[in-house]
Amino acid sequence: MKIIDRIALALVIIGAVNWGLIGFFGFNLVDSIFGAMSMISRIIYSLVGISGLWCIRYFMYDYHD
Question: Tens of pLDDT along 37-50?
Fold first, then answer.
């Protein structure tokens, strides 16, 4: 697995955990650490979104590396 794939997967997992916290407890970890919609929060959300798009390719074909 390439380093960019590992980074993307880690960011997708972080995003999933954050959404789980929001869904179960109404607690947004990213906003509580960096501030609600601060510049850093927006960058993190953007990187998580891009990582999610990057990881879609795992569903497009049988990926072995």
Answer: 899 999 999 999 99
